[in-house]
Amino acid sequence: MLSTNKKLLTVLNGQSVWPPPVWLMRQAGRYLPEFRLLRQQADFLTRCLTPDIAVEITLQPIRRFAFDAAILFSDILILPWALGQDLKFVEGKGPVLPPIQSEQDFHKLNAQHAIEKTEPVLEAIRRLNKIVNSPDTIGTAAAQSVTLIGFTGSPFTVACYMVEGGSSKDFSTVFKMMYENPSLFGKIIDLLTQTTADYLCRQIEAGAEAVKLFDSWGGLLSVTLFDQYVVQPTRQIVNIVKSKYPHIPIIGFPRLAGTKLQSYIDGTGLQTIGIDQTADISVLNKTIDQKIGFQGNIDPLCLLHNQNILKQEIHNLCVELKNRPHILNLGHGVLPTTPVEHVYELVNTVRNLK
Ligand code: CP3
């Protein structure tokens, strides 16, 4: 049900709001001292899979900055973990998984118990939904105005990590499989498409008020492969989720899609799109239908440095997008070295826009 004091839901439903709602990708993270404290007490997976901890971390940035959205503290790699792929987060390296490189590796994955394994994540969502919708439970004026966002990675981006076995500069192992064993890569994408749609539906049933599909690496693909591995699977997910929950907004974030953005919008039917900092927002504003909402696209590096430039960038962006649904966000996640005061500055600048 649409609650009118949730600015973010209003924008996700196609209206522009001034000043725009604001939240940041990776708003719960290492730049926050209270996050670093919890980080010493439990490893990454434990933090994701212990509802008390996931709830607490999700709320940390809301208490400080009264953001318009609380994004569930979790990770896009929880789904491969739930499918049975071992997952570790190694300090200084990031995620490490045993790579899926053969039919045998693929057949070890098991979709049957995947949703059961995500139960602690769903429990965190249930608790968070209660908290953000009860007066005074967060202890800020923001209570009841905060929208709870659930998320997954897109099949392509999650497949990148599953096949490569972790992060990579160019995901060359993934490209090798796409060109040399498209049948296996197609099976991985199909499995992820079904389980991602299912997982998003479960998150909505647990209380996610909007959901987001993170596609960090789809932009690397050629036009043909982008259609095959990004647009078509995303469209299937959108169709499945929308057929069950037509009123729940879905945000797509096809990072670095560049000139493929229009085909992503046309092909997926998504109404709100995350825009990365490399995109020319004034060009997009002229060429993309005014009904499509934009979320973005302040450079996370700008947040690190010059506050006068930051304020000017926020002002220019918000004025440019004043007549379209717009959610102020970064073009990618908050960097761990970001000074906390700069995040206050960003939020105050947005909230004080005239
Ligand atoms: O946005 C949020 O605050 C919600 C939580 C969230 C995390 N990861 C927490 C996290 C979300 C939405 C993600 C998405 C995610 N995870 C993506 C897509 C967005 C993007 O950044 O491109 C990707 C590619 C991942 C995979 C992942 N998780 C990597 C490559 C890493 C290591 C890099 C790093 O920053 O350390 C992670 C770890 C991770 N996920 C952290 C957080 C807060 C750092 C955890 C820590 O070291 O304590």
Automatic annotation (TrEMBL):
CDD domains: URO-D
Residues flagged as site, Transition state stabilizer: D75
Superkingdom of the source species: Bacteria
E.C. code: 4.1.1.37
GO cellular component terms listed in the entry, alphabetical order: cytosol
Top EC category: lyase
GO molecular function annotation: uroporphyrinogen decarboxylase activity
Keywords: Cytoplasm, Decarboxylase, Lyase, Porphyrin biosynthesis
PANTHER family, per the entry: METHYLTETRAHYDROFOLATE:HOMOCYSTEINE METHYLTRANSFERASE RELATED, UROPORPHYRINOGEN DECARBOXYLASE
Subunit structure, as described in the record: Homodimer.
HAMAP family reported for this sequence: URO_D
Protein name: Uroporphyrinogen decarboxylase
Species this protein is from: Commensalibacter communis
GN (gene name): hemE
